[in-house]
Amino acid sequence: MEKHITILGILLLICGVMSLLAALLFLVMGGVIPSIVFTVENSRHFNDDEAIAAIIGVALIIAGIVIAITSLPSIIGGIGLISHKSWGRIWGLIASALNIPSIPIGTIIGIYGLWVLLSDETAELLRKPQR
């Protein structure tokens, strides 16, 4: 089960970093799209295109923040599981549960994570003092 813990830690860390990169992309696009539309429109009055661009920009920024926040448990849990820390199990469980709605890869990793982290053997391994 020790190998499963390490593999899960690596998978969670990769998922967390990839999600963080996606969040960064959303945040950048949330700022770029409205500025492009505002520049192209070049009018003195706020029109419908600019309003739509502003709404899309705000939605992308909010989505980026949410994705960034939900990626943190994967990063923290991955680091904790790779180093076989007892607190990594809790963060790993949270990250696995958060990954389940991300069909299909996140679902597979989430179910695998729950299987690994909810086993009695894993709980016993992570409860032991570190070497």
Question: Topology, pairings included?
Answer:
Blueprint: H1 2-41, H2 48-82, H3 86-99, H4 105-117, H5 120-127
Helix pairs in contact: 1-2, 1-4, 2-3, 3-4
Fraction in helix: over 70%
Strand content: under 5%
Radius of gyration, taken over Cα atoms and rounded to an integer in Å: 20 Å
| 3D shape | elongated
Average pLDDT taken over every residue: 89
Largest sheet: none
How do the helices and strands follow one another from N- to C-terminus? Answer: HHHHH
List the total number of helices.
5
Low-confidence residue ranges: none
- Secondary-structure content class: mainly alpha
Strand element count: 0
Distance between the termini: 17 Å
How would you characterize the overall build of this protein?
The chain is mainly α and 131 residues long. It has helices at 2-41, 48-82, 86-99, 105-117, 120-127. Helix 1 (2-41) packs antiparallel against helix 2 and helix 3 (86-99) runs antiparallel to helix 4. The chain is elongated. The two termini are 17 Å apart.
Task: Write a short abstract of this structure.
The protein has 131 residues and is mainly alpha-helical. The protein is built from 5 helices and no strands.
Task: Supply database-style keywords.
84% helix; single chain; mainly alpha; elongated; 131 residues
